[in-house]
Design goal:
Layout lengths: L5 E6 L12 H11 L4 E3 L5 E3 L8 H11 L3 E3 L7 H8 L3 E4 L2 H18 L5 H4 L3 H15 L6 H6 L7 E9 L7 H13 L4 E8 L9 E7 L2 H9 L1 H11 L3 E10 L3
Parallel strand pairs: 1-3, 2-4, 4-5
Antiparallel strand pairs: 6-8, 6-9, 7-8
């Protein structure tokens, strides 16, 4: 919520804009209504490279942290100093976007390689990029207090197990919609619903199969399937197109097993 001026990977002064700070009252209302897991907030950071040092509103950040009680996200982390990072992570910030700084590290590695080998190919020039970005990422993890905490975090996380919604059916003798139309329209509508990873439609390979057609809708998580069932586009497709066209319907949900 709010607006962070500038643009990733470029000079911030080229895209000045006007920063709009996040209001704690709006943040709380948004989180209460949406149930989001993280919230990106604007407290004075700037995206891209900037001259000088960003002036951050720590009092606002503290209010936001107390108001929403979920992890906060900061865009425009490039160019901040160690003290600023410490104050961010001490006041609820769990994710810091750092693209411009990492891209500059990559560019520096490529320039160094180019100087050593002016006729080098692109493949040669980018050889040191992965290591350079990795070293900078490790430095940030140590500075931000994240290093060595993977086991701690994993203990508090639930594994994301994908879910598959399987449907087998026949076509109703009274259907007014063709099979091809039903499946193509269904794939188009269902694949656009948040949380859907893949929609597969198929026809039995044997003519005497008890069920001639199938749908397989894969989701990122069981919660995504629950949300899918309440989505207005699914409800509309189900009532207006799918249900009137099919017969002998069986639905089964499967969860990934690890």
């Amino acid at each position: 919520l709010g607006y962070v001026a500038g643009r990733e990977g470029e000079g911030a002064e080229q895209h000045p804009g006007e920063t709009a700070f996040t209001l704690p009252s709006e943040a709380k209302a948004y989180v209460d209504r949406t149930g989001v897991d993280f919230l990106a907030v604007s407290i004075g950071t700037v995206q891209g490279r900037m001259n000088g040092r960003a002036k951050l509103d720590y009092a606002r950040l503290k209010q936001l942290n107390q108001s929403v009680n979920i992890p906060l996200v900061i865009h425009g982390g490039s160019g901040l100093n160690e003290d600023q990072f410490h104050k961010l992570t001490s006041n609820g910030v769990a994710k810091i976007d750092y693209y411009t700084a990492l891209s500059d590290v990559a560019a520096k590695a490529m320039r160094k390689r180019s100087k050593e080998n002016p006729k080098g190919s692109f493949t040669d020039l980018k050889k040191d990029v992965k290591a350079a970005i990795g070293n900078e990422a490790q430095r940030c993890l140590r500075q931000w207090g994240s290093a060595g905490r993977a086991a701690e975090i994993l203990e508090r996380c639930e594994p994301w197990l994908s879910v598959e919604h399987l449907i087998v059916h026949n076509m109703s003798a009274h259907s007014t919609q063709s099979l091809d139309s039903l499946m193509s329209e269904g794939k188009r509508i269902l694949s656009q619903i948040p949380g859907v990873r893949e929609v597969f439609t198929g026809e039995a390979t044997e003519e005497n199969s008890k069920y001639s057609f199938c749908w397989s809708v894969r989701f990122t998580h069981k919660a995504a399937l629950d949300s899918f069932r309440e989505h207005q586009d699914f409800d509309s497709f189900l009532k207006k197109q799918f249900s009137p066209s099919v017969s002998d319907l069986i639905c089964i949900d499967y969860q990934e097993k690890i």
